[in-house]
């Protein structure tokens, strides 16, 4: 599939990439707005058949609006394209660090994906959602993979009790698990080994993980020592290998190179008598945040990865492993927008116009953390002519709290609704209460219906964990 060519938008309407073949065939990660985006007769943006201005009136502002169809489409595309292009077994697991909540888990589980969790909290959230949905303990165990470079003993016990696969990151963990297995009277613990492949990719330094100088995973120089240790441990059921090279990646070559390296390592493992039937290639496919971004489609990425693994297996004489991919951003990023209400405005002649909204770095810390770029539309005047370049500022007491520098917008007024796109991944999950701003609500929209999936925090929620010792009261 080819990305829609970018043109400079003149109105909000230009952001809606009309596609006569319907939502199912478009790759969500290449779309700025969710696939169901539409403009209604009031000139308002609609998502999932819901008018965003009305949603803000009903649920408050700022508001995360998650489009169920876009999320499900991305899940299905990953799953179906692996079935099309990979000749062995495959499993897609959602990197829940992108957005972990009960409803998100529920939607993704019904698309038959598994889950990558990285903390006791994400594990708990996923397990709770799956249990409430009626999954058996065995099904839950098979769906979850537990990551982390410093899992606590309590977290490891939690994972062992659930029975999920633990992705072992380092020697401390590798040596702790057999002891815990013995204490908890568990026969065998399913594990994967995470390695640092030393593959460079072009993304922000903080979100690169596969280069050699990384806190994650075993150094490949240790691989033989790791394999011979595992071969001695009866309680470790080592199923295979894992690597993740980074996030928001637009090139296909790094994952193709990774496939080659991992398959060679599988072969070494087999020389140690380990069967290693699983290969987990990580996540990392990027999404379009701005007109200039041009990520490969989900189909193109899956095809490239599948072919690279099959080719490497043929070259090395290794049977096709079960291939796991663990995308986060490209599953949920483009499915969500954040609606804000415009408040104050400050014009500095010949320099800059600031338009302030009622959220900022607390609901979306990505611009201040990674200088991430976003796109915006005026959600309540979609056909108004874009005629100004402005800076969209948050409301936090911090000069760097800028959501978009040099945004292209029509004239705006206090009370207007600004809609920032592509906020499904690493926004709510990284949100904070900085300046004691309550975190926004989130709604799941589909077919004209909006369901609350996260309640807006109240001021009382903000002080719920505060303690006021008696001695301070007198
Ligand atoms: N697997 C592992 C082991 C990971 O560490 C990650 C992301 C993923 C999968 C999912 O990667 P994705 O498909 O979402 O690119 N907070 C940063 C992103 C950090 C990503 C961390 N690891 C951001 O907002 O850009």
What would a concise description of this structure say?
The chain is of the alpha/beta class.
Name every ligand kind in the structure. ligand LLP
Architecture (CATH level 2) name of the largest domain: Alpha-Beta Barrel
Radius of gyration from the CA trace?
Answer: 23 Å
User: Biggest β-sheet: count, sense, barrel?
Assistant: 9 strands, mixed
- Quantity of strands, as a count: 20
Residue runs with pLDDT of under 50 for 5 or more positions: 1-6
CATH topology of the largest domain: TIM Barrel
Give me the CATH superfamily of the largest domain. Alanine racemase
Shape label: globular
As a percent range, the share of helical residues equals 25-40%
**Name of the level-1 CATH class of the largest domain:** Alpha Beta
Question: What does the model show?
Answer:
The structure is a single chain. Residues 1-6 have low confidence and may be disordered. Strands 4, 13, 14, 15, 16, 17, 18, 19 and 20 form a 9-stranded mixed sheet that branches. An 8-stranded parallel beta barrel has the order 5-6-7-8-9-10-11-12, surrounded by 7 helices. Strands 1-2-3 form a 3-stranded antiparallel sheet. It has 13 helices and 20 strands. With 474 residues, it is α/β, with parallel strands linked by helices. The radius of gyration is 23 Å and the shape is globular. The chain has helices at residues 52-59, 68-85, 102-110, 120-132, 137-143, 153-162, 171-183, 223-232, 253-271, 298-316, 329-332, 366-370, 459-463, and strands at residues 38-39, 45-47, 50-51, 63-67, 90-95, 114-117, 144-146, 165-168, 189-194, 236-242, 278-280, 322-325, 336-348, 352-357, 376-378, 388-393, 402-409, 417-421, 441-446, 449-454. The chain folds into 2 domains: 12-67 and 333-462, Lyase, Ornithine Decarboxylase, Chain A, domain 1; 69-332, Alpha-Beta Barrel (TIM Barrel). The structure holds ligand LLP. Residues 95, 97-98, 116, 147, 207, 209, 244, 247-248, 282-285, 326-330, 366, 370, 425-426 line the site of ligand LLP.
């Amino acid at each position: 599939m080819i990305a829609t060519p970018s043109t400079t938008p003149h109105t909000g309407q230009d952001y809606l990439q009309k596609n006569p073949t319907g939502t199912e065939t478009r790759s969500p990660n290449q779309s700025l707005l969710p696939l169901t985006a539409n403009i209604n007769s009031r000139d308002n943006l609609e998502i999932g058949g819901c008018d965003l201005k009305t949603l803000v009136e009903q649920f408050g502002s700022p508001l995360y609006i998650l489009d169920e169809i876009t999320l499900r489409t991305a899940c299905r595309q990953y799953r179906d394209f692996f079935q099309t292009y990979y000749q062995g077994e495959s499993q897609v697991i959602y990197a829940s660090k992108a957005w972990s909540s009960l409803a998100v888990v529920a939607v993704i589980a019904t698309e038959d994906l598994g889950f990558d969790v990285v903390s006791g909290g994400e594990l708990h959230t996923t397990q709770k959602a799956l249990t409430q949905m009626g999954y058996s303990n065995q099904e839950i165990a098979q769906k979850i993979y537990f990551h982390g470079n410093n899992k606590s003993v309590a977290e490891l016990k939690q994972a062992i009790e659930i029975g999920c696969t633990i992705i072992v990151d380092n020697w401390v963990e590798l040596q702790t698990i057999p002891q815990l297995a013995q204490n908890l009277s568990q026969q065998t613990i399913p594990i994967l080994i995470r390695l640092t492949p030393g593959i460079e990719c072009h993304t922000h330094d903080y979100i690169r993980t596969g280069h050699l100088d990384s806190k994650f995973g075993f150094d490949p120089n240790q691989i033989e020592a790791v394999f011979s240790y595992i071969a001695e441990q009866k309680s470790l059921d080592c199923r295979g290998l894992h690597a993740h090279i980074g996030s928001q990646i637009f090139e296909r070559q790094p994952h193709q190179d990774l496939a080659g390296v991992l398959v060679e390592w599988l072969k070494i493992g087999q020389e140690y008598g380990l069967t290693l039937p699983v290969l987990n290639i990580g996540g990392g496919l990027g999404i379009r945040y701005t007109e200039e971004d041009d990520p490969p489609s989900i189909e193109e990425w899956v095809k490239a990865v599948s072919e690279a693994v099959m080719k490497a297996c043929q070259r090395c004489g290794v049977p096709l492993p079960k291939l796991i991919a663990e995308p986060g951003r490209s599953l949920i990023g483009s499915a969500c927008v954040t609606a804000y209400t415009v408040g104050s405005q400050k014009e500095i002649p010949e320099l800059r116009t600031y338009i302030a909204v009622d959220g900022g770095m607390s609901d979306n810390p990505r611009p201040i953390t990674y200088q991430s770029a976003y796109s915006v539309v005026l959600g309540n005047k979609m056909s108004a002519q874009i005629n100004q370049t402005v800076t969209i500022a948050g409301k936090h007491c911090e000069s760097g709290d800028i959501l978009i520098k040099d945004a292209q917008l029509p004239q705006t007024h206090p009370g207007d609704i600004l809609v920032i796109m592509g906020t499904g991944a690493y926004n709510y999950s990284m949100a904070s209460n900085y300046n004691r701003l309550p975190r926004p609500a989130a709604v799941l929209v589909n077919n004209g219906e909006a369901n609350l999936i996260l309640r807006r925090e109240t001021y009382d929620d903000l002080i719920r964990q505060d303690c006021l010792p008696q001695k301070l009261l007198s």
